[in-house]
Write a structure and sequence with these properties.
Methanol Dehydrogenase, Chain A; six-stranded mixed β-sheet; 3 domains; Immunoglobulin-like; 728 residues; mainly beta; 3 helices
Length: 728
């Protein structure tokens, strides 16, 4: 056998092989980085479409969704286009068109993807929209409310427009319920268990929704009432138990005039409201009470049109007992007659309405305090009682050192006040016809005995308590009000042009426990610029300093913020008050309202200088008002400026209500009811002028105040009470 030997020789690579080796090493070095560390390429990569959007076919009204995908160096930015125009907000890899229409059919949708390197566009996806019958995309949901509240049912539907809607309650069509949303009238316990459905239709068919059930629970809270002028003794004008009316449903589509009832004269007094009143033979009713210049008091069902539940009238022309004429008082401010002007007051504890009526009886002028049963109108406590009063003094109209109440010249304009078992009544004049004085007389609410008398200028003249219909305010122990032009001299017991604080009745009179008189009293008095043209408002701040505040604005248009525990008295050089805001408005023949640490006040002068209602924030510690105001209405008001009413559910759903009354001298002048968002008065929610034919508020009177309670607004005017609420 042959033996073989293997010889190993050194390998000599060819030139081509060396080049290949060098290129490979260089590539590896580039991928791994210098020094043998790991790494990635630093060159960004332009976007590339990996999933193209596809064409979509939907039925009209349905949604259409286009989706795409792309790769490339992040971040990737997306922008969808419709027919070449960028779609606002369509900046993700998917775009949904929520409600398609026939006009959208054939539209092209393109997804553009971009990054720092460049951009790329997808193919154009075509939308095809087919006509179709309606379909419900979101069913109406069941609702639970408290009795007295409204319930809102809504449906979402797709289909070829126009779509029509008809809501049903327990299978019965609801008149006027023909939109995608239905708001019920204020609910009752008997509505609980009702089923609501809606039929949606178009030219191609119809569909019925599933049933939404209504549950109504008892409202266990104390029902709201308005038993005195501006809602409470502090005269805040706020009803914070309003659970029906909200800024969302007070608009011309859902809110308006429900009905009106006739009354026999002008209603200058604010309507009062008492729930659950038993009327013998007629059952239990929510009742609205209205007083007129024809000397009548009416009790109407507050929720339904119809004849009065009862009416009391205090004249008897056949026997020479009539109202007063403008000639009797030498003044045309109240025309054509003068009877009941001041707002009554109701004591819910004993079911009594107290009211002052003026009459002319065979040439003799008389004023009486009546106490009427709220359920029947019958006189109570041996009433009525003749109003008579006398104080010591040498002032205007005095005789032998005595000043006596004059029932012809004294006009009972201010609202009555009920506090601590006493009915307080105040007076001024009509047209400043002298002689007159400001009077306050108090009667026992249980037996109508006269308890105390006070005269503002017993040794001087005038000093009337005007307040443009507002009443003296009470803080539980004291009574506070402002007087108009008149004599001022504390040493002589004269308190004209002052804010007065009266203590409790003692020995047949009241002591002045504190007062404030402006430093410019002399010029105000000489110019007939009454401080007391407006009403006072009281506000307590538990954590503030001071805690007990009073707000007032008169003819000068200056707002005063006064510490009720240290009112400031009189100084000829300056006012010792918490805050004074001159030029806040052209003049205030009205009263402010307050809610949620906000004061609401408007102004206007008799010289036809208009102004807006303004909202001032109240500092919870100092009690001072914000300047400038936090908001104001876009609507301006001529004389007389409105006195606002506020409705709210606690600290939410605040609405400011006012009446535009500048046409009160016009024989055909209509009042206008307006509602504003109380958190921003620039937002007008509703005006009765927006649908003037449907919502005519009645002929206007000056100084009228709307009463807002239990889902309704009550407006008294000339020969008519008008009721507004949510439309059926």
């Amino acid at each position: 056998m042959r033996a073989y030997k293997t010889f190993l020789r050194p390998y000599r690579p060819t030139r081509a092989y060396c080049f290949l080796f060098f290129f490979t090493a260089l590539l590896l070095l580039n991928l791994t980085g210098c020094g043998g560390g790991s790494g990635t390429s630093t060159d960004p990569i332009a976007p590339t479409i990996t999933t193209q959007p596809v064409d979509q076919t939907v039925t009209e009204g349905q949604a259409a969704t286009f989706t795409g995908a792309a790769t490339g160096t992040a971040p990737l930015n997306y922008q969808w286009q419709k027919n070449g125009t960028a779609i606002s907000g369509a900046t993700s890899s998917s775009y949904t068109m929520t409600a398609t229409t026939a006009a959208d059919s054939g539209s092209q949708f393109v997804m553009v993807v971009s990054n720092s390197v460049g951009n790329v566009s997808s193919r154009a996806a075509i939308l095809h929209v087919n006509a179709g019958p309606p379909s419900i995309t979101i069913q109406p949901a069941s609702q639970t409310v408290k009795a007295g509240q409204t319930a809102t049912f809504s449906v979402w539907a797709a289909g070829t427009p126009p779509l029509t809607y008809q809501w049903h309650k327990n299978g019965v069509s609801i008149s006027g319920a023909t939109s995608a949303t239905y708001i019920t009238p204020p609910t009752a316990l008997g509505d609980s268990g009702s089923a609501f459905t809606v039929v949606v239709s178009n030219s191609l068919g119809s569909v019925t929704s599933s049933a939404a059930n209504l549950t109504v629970n008892a409202n266990t809270g104390t029902p709201a009432s308005v038993l005195t002028y501006h809602n409470d003794n502090a005269r805040t004008g706020q009803n914070v138990k309003e659970i029906i009316l909200t800024p969302q449903n007070v608009n011309t589509a859902n809110f308006g005039k429900l009905f009106s009832v006739l009354i026999d004269g002008a209603g200058y007094a604010q309507p009062l409201y008492m729930p659950n009143v038993t009327v013998p033979g007629l059952g239990t009713h929510n009742v609205v009470y209205v007083a007129t210049e024809h000397d009548s008091v009416y009790a109407f069902d507050a929720d339904h049109s119809g004849l009065p539940l009862w009416q009391e009238n205090f004249i008897d022309p056949a026997n020479g007992i009539t109202t007063l004429s403008t000639a009797d008082v030498s003044c045309t401010s109240l025309r054509p007659e003068i009877g009941i002007t001041g707002t009554p007051v109701i004591d819910p504890a004993n079911g009594t309405l107290y009211v002052v009526a003026r009459t002319k009886e065979n040439g003799t002028f008389v004023q009486r305090l009546h106490a009427l049963d709220v359920g029947t109108g019958a006189e109570k406590f041996g009433g009525p009682v003749l109003i008579q009063a006398t104080v010591n003094g040498t002032g205007a109209g005095s005789l032998n050192g005595k000043v006596s109440f004059n029932p012809q010249s004294e006009n009972q304009r201010p609202a009555l006040l009920l506090q601590n078992g006493l009915v307080y009544i105040a007076w001024a004049s009509l047209c400043d016809v002298d002689p007159y004085h400001g009077w306050v007389v108090a009667y026992d609410a249980q037996n109508l005995n006269q308890m105390a008398v006070w005269n503002a200028t017993a040794n001087g003249t005038e000093g009337g308590i005007w307040a443009s219909g507002a009443g003296p305010a009470g803080d539980g122990s004291s009574v506070l009000f402002a007087t108009g032009n008149g004599s001022f001299n504390v040493a002589s017991g004269n308190y004209g042009s002052s804010v007065v604080k009266l203590g409790p009745a003692i020995a047949g009179t009241f002591a002045v426990s504190d007062y404030f008189t402006p430093f410019n009293y002399a010029s105000l008095n000489a110019g007939d610029v009454d401080l007391g043209a407006g009403g006072v408002l009281l506000l307590d701040q538990p954590f503030g300093s001071p805690q007990h505040l009073l707000f007032l604005c008169g003819k000068e248009g200056r707002i005063y913020v006064i510490d009720r525990d240290n009112m400031g008295h009189f100084d000829t050089t300056t006012d010792h008050v918490l805050q004074s805001i001159p030029g806040a408005n052209p003049g205030a023949w009205n009263s402010p309202a307050s809610w949620n640490r906000t004061l609401y006040l408007g102004g206007a002068s008799e010289q036809n200088i208009a102004d807006r209602v303004k909202a001032y924030s109240i500092d919870p510690v100092s009690g001072m008002l914000s300047t400038p105001p936090s908001s104001q209405t876009s609507v301006t008001f001529l004389y007389p400026a409105p006195t606002p009413s506020i409705s709210a559910n606690g600290t939410s759903n605040g609405i400011m209500w006012v009446l535009q009354e500048s046409t009160y001298l016009n024989n055909t002048g209509q009042a206008v009811l307006l509602a504003f968002d109380a958190t921003n008065l620039a937002n007008l929610l509703y005006s009765s002028n927006q649908n003037a034919t449907r919502d005519a508020a009645g002929l206007s009177v000056k100084f009228s105040v709307p009463t807002v309670v239990n889902g309704k607004v009550y407006v008294a005017g000339r020969n008519q009470l008008t009721v507004f609420g949510l439309l059926p």
